[in-house]
Each structure stands twice: as C-alpha cells, then as structure tokens.
Amino acid sequence: MENRIFNNQLLEYQCILKGLAKRFTKDQEAINDLVQETFLRALKYMDQFIQNPQVVSWLYVIMRNVYINQYKRLQHKQNYEDIVFHYELQSATIEPFNEDISDKRMLLNDISKIVAKLPSSQGNMFNDYVSGYKYRELSERYGIPEGTIKSRIHIIRKNLQKQLNMNGEK
Description:
By secondary structure, this protein is mainly α.
C-alpha cells in the first residue's frame, strides 16, 4: 500500500520536477531522463519520505546531484576525447617521429592490454572508474560494498603499476 501512495505522490510531482529540471537543461529528452533518474533514486529510499511534506525539496536535491554527476562524467569524457584528439593531431604533423607521443601511445596500449587480461567484471569496474564513476556509484552499479570497490580498484592500480614497471625494465 505504501508503494502505491509514494508512486502516486511522485506522479503528482512530475510536472513540478520537469519545471525544475528546465533550470539545468533546455533539452526535453534530457529533462525527461533527469526526472526519470530522480524517480529511480527516490524509490530506493521511499520508506523515509512517504507523506513527507518536504518531498519536493528532497527530490530537487536528488535531481541536482544526478545532474552534477552526469555533468562531471561528461566533462571527464570530453577532456579525455580532447587529449586523444590532441595526440592524434600531433602525430599527424610533419615530424615523422615524435618520441613523447609514441611513448604515451605505447603506454596507453600497454595499459589497455593489461586491463583486457583482467576478469571482465574487474576490467569493466576499472574502466568505469577511469571514466569518472565515483566509488558509491560503482557500489550501486555492481552491488558490492563501497569498501570492496575501493580495495579492488587499489589492487588493480598497484597491479598495473607493477606490470608497467616490469615491462619498462625489459
């Protein structure tokens, strides 16, 4: 019964949330996605907010945090793409061989090969971490405690460092 009450309550606030989402973006599809993601996150903690008079402000805070996380992730991805574009542009210059770019490209290839050898769950987790996901988000995504995520990422990073140093000494 409580689920139905909370769902009805969320549907009542859908128009309000869409209006609030317009403060973040003008794209209608992005607004719908933002409201939907807000509802998904709200449903996880619905027992705390059923019949709460401050539910709109709580939903707004969730929406703002979702938007900020998505924005940061997009910025991180954009920075990565800019760096790759910069290196590709530099490699297309008149110089036939640029040692600095070649070294970095080989290092990226070595890292990719090492990550590819990891079990798929660890490789995916590490790639998600590098893509900008926070430990908390990875914990929710993989259904593993946040501390376990932190230690697995740490172990993978140490393993990468060790293997890259061994490759460099040969």
